[in-house]
Amino acid sequence: MSNIGSYEERRKSFDWKEAERELGYPENGNHNIAWYCVDRHCEKGRGGKTALIWEGHAGEEKRFTFDDLRLHTNAFAARFRELGVEPGERICLFMDKIPELYFSFLGGLKMGGIVQPLFSAFGEDSLITRLEDAETRAIVTTKKHVRKVRRILDRLPHLQHILVVDADGFALKDRETAFDYEKAPPVETFPAHAVTPESPSVLHYTSGTTGKPKGALHVHGSLVSQYITTKWVLDLQDDDIYWCTADPGWVTGTSYGIIGPWSNGCTQLVLDSGFGSARWYEFMQKHRATVWYSAPTAIRLLMRDGTELVQKHDLSSLRHLASVGEPLNAEAVVWSKEAFGKEFHDTYWQTETGCMVLCNYPGLPVKPGSMGKPFPGIEAGVVDPKNHEPVKQGTVGLIALRPGWPSMFRAYWNNEKTYNEKFQNGWYICGDRASIDEDGYYWFVGRDDDVINTGGHLVGPFEIESALIEHEAVAESAAVGKPDKVNMEVVKAFVALKPGFEPNDDTELSIMNFIRKKLSPLAMPQEIEFVPSLPKTRSGKILRRMLRAKEWGEEIGDTSTLEDD
Ligand code: WT7
Q1: Distance from the alpha carbon of residue 432 to the mean position of ligand 1, in angstroms
Q2: Is residue 302 situated within a structural domain?
């Protein structure tokens, strides 16, 4: 029997209070996420259960019980406090998927900090934009990544503490301090900092069409949504071995790679290694993974490597598969059934929603290619882009949600205007286009803006264009998504060169590497098209949408309507 049982019944009788009751949420009292994910299980006598099975890229393995988690998160919390980090101050996590990432995430929350995880492949520009905006006070990192922080340090007066978690034999510099959880004296008790459900918890940066990346601010009360969606959609049960492939630098890796599974008291797997089909199958076979939450690009890569490779492994432990981040094409769902005997269940949500909002559920038929139905407790609709009134069934419009679910973001950091613009006519507007069919299933159509979704990661064209014009050869540029078989979209840049620069392979390579280093490998253009000049509106704005339409072979239509974009 699945946790959700009957979707229809759950929908009828839903009340977030029920999830709160299950969690033992007090009327008044402490609502600290870290306590619910860790200490609560220890107090219930379940501290000996394995919380984390971690494997590094060389195959080394570490295991941690909930009791270990309690001690290590205490140690990080105590260390932050010792350094003078105050509750409410931002603590950035900037490292690979090593155990310390998980300990410092919960340790930071435990002492009342606002945790700001950043993808470790980010380059200096990506880092500085986000650390400057958040006025981040402390950063936790490793030898491998600290050099990037050093190079931007003079521009970050707020960043007072750099915790290097593997500093053994390493010469530390200004503002750096070593912290090794294995060597630090154990911290037996660390009372979780008292917070309310409205106290800020996690700050995740996400990209928009215009302007810099926006920090979506979440609160401790998000736990309620993350707990119950994990339970009902991912169907995590007591004896499950769960694997979420996402990096906590992105919201999937925190909502469903930390908070969701551990608030459910589940054992989870972490593989700190890049993608590899055989490697992934070996990993799941070895640890007898049962529930697997991944992304369409990964599934398409696995599909490319064929069913035979799957059959060389014993993956009979798998019982439930789910996916998020980009459209999951029908072929991938059909293939997964053939390859694993199970269908991937697509789920749709965003950094801003904090939890899954449209999902396919155990027990409800999957329509391959559809995102499924609203989570019980989420009121969703598809609305007209102009008047924000619900459209007729079958008509394409904007996905909209009624505000009020516990894990909804509470602000864009320092950006009230953009936050307010996301709410129209009593709805939160997600910024994606979709339609609803006669059975109430949602079908994704596309984004309603110019943000590029490459392999499930959003990249803002503005951020790329701002970096491009810093290259000595670039006069002006536009970044758009172009179709890609595996990643759905990849970045393509249109570049007009400054006089004296040649549009050749060397220039192209030099620009590509420049972006990879400054921003990240995700943001690096896979193709650069040199053009004499870029198409513009009469007011001088670059017609990015026109370039994009050309890449997708779409009708460009009447360009005068693009004048206001
Ligand atoms: C955007 C949100 C929340 C998890 C990771 C991404 C796209 C997400 C789906 C899906 C089609 C999807 C949307 C959305 N997206 N899930 N199942 N089908 N598109 O979080 O970085 O905030 O990105 O990803 O465009 O708005 P994010």
Answers
A1: 9
A2: no
The amino acid sitting at 7 is: Y
Q: Angle, nearest 10°, between helix axes 16-23 and 222-233?
A: 90
Model pTM? 0.96
Q: Which two tokens stand for residue 461?
A: 């064209």
- Cβ atoms of 71 and 186 closer than 8 Å: yes
d(CA 225, CA 205): 20
Instruction: For residue 483, give the 3-state DSSP assignment.
Output: strand
Q: What does the pLDDT look like over 306-364, one tens digit per residue?
A: 999 999 999 999 999 999 999 999 999 999 999 999 999 999 999 999 999 999 999 99
208 CB-contact burial (10 Å; exposed 0-12 / middle 13-18 / buried 19+): buried
HSE-up (13 A, CA, CB side) for residue 59: 3
Give me the residue label for tokens 């978690």: 165
* Domain region containing 502: 452-552
Domain count, the chain: 2
Those residues whose C-beta lies under 8 Å from the C-beta of residue 374, and which sit 6 or more positions away, are: 357, 358, 359, 380, 442
Q: Is 433 in the pocket of ligand 1 (CB under 6 A)?
A: no
Residue 329 lies in a domain: no
Q: Which residue has the tokens 């469903």?
A: 256
Residue 97 above 70 pLDDT?
yes
Q: CB of 138 closer than 6 A to ligand 1?
A: no
Q: What is the CATH number of the domain that holds 81?
A: 3.40.50.980
CA of 509 to the centre of ligand 1 (A): 30
180 within 8 A of 167, measured Cβ to Cβ: yes
